[in-house]
Amino acid sequence: MAETEMLAVVALLQDFPELGLVRGQVGTVVEDLASGVYEVEFCDDDGRAYAMPSVKADQFMRLHHEPIHEAA
Question: Could you tell me which of 17, 18, 10 has the C-alpha nearest to residue 43?
């Protein structure tokens, strides 16, 4: 599995009830903590961070805003 890039936009695949985060919540990868573990920042519409949990790569999916082109 490819490493997730810094500042990648991701969505949670599971709830984190202890943090008030639910499946589908969107955040930004801000730190590579260990192999397959990232710090993800969740912000409100005004840009204020409200959670920054450590999240395993299998607990989120990368979101893409542009087409992904593969070499033939």
Answer: 10
Closest CA to 21 of 61, 64, 46, 50: 50
Amino acid code (one letter) for 54 = S
pLDDT band at 52 (very low <50, low <70, confident <90, very high): very high
Would 16 be classed as within a structural domain? yes
Number of domains in the chain: 1
Q: Does a structural domain hold residue 3?
A: no
pTM > 0.70: yes or no? yes
**12-40: per-residue pLDDT in tens?**
999 999 999 999 999 999 999 999 999 99
Q: Report d(CA 24, CA 9) in Å as an integer.
A: 12
Q: Which residues of 1-23 are buried (b: 16+ CB within 10 A; e: fewer)?
A: eeebeeebebebeeebeeeebee
